[in-house]
Design a protein that fits this description.
Elements: E1 8-11, E2 24-27, H1 37-47, H2 62-74, E3 78-79, E4 92-93, E5 99-100
Antiparallel strand pairs: 1-2, 3-5, 4-5
Protein name: Protein argonaute PNH1
Domain Piwi: 1-79
Pfam families: Piwi (PF02171)
Length: 117
């Protein structure tokens, strides 16, 4: 059920708890390592076991989950209603016109501690 000339595959990498397993569709855009189809599918399946928040395999590769989590958290640093000429604002303006708050300074007791999300 994949594209006849492009590198795409379906992978059901997790067991559904209540029979809800659905395969994920992967479309390889660029393969600079020249993996074979079997190697790419094995790598993708093995990555599904590396998600730090789950002791079982997940349905989509963890880098996709981590990117979603980073984007979700980043929205809390956006200030959509700050006027451009506000001198009291310490925000940085992005290319699309929204403002980004500066990240809070790290406290001394957590500077040398590993952070897990």
């Amino acid at each position: 059920i994949c594209h006849p000339s492009e590198f795409a595959f379906y992978l059901c990498s997790h067991a559904g708890i209540q029979g809800t397993s659905r395969p994920a569709h992967y479309h390889v855009l660029w393969d600079e390592n020249n993996f074979t189809a079997d190697e790419m599918q094995t790598l993708t399946n093995n990555l599904c076991y590396t998600y730090a928040r789950c002791t079982r395999s997940v349905s989509v590769v963890p880098p996709a989950y981590y990117a979603h989590l980073a984007a979700f958290r980043a929205r809390f640093y956006m200030e959509p209603g700050v006027p451009e000429d506000d001198p009291a604002s310490r925000s940085t303006r992005t290319s699309n016109g929204s403002c980004v708050k500066p990240l809070p300074a790290l406290k001394e007791k957590v500077k040398r501690v590993m952070f897990y999300c």
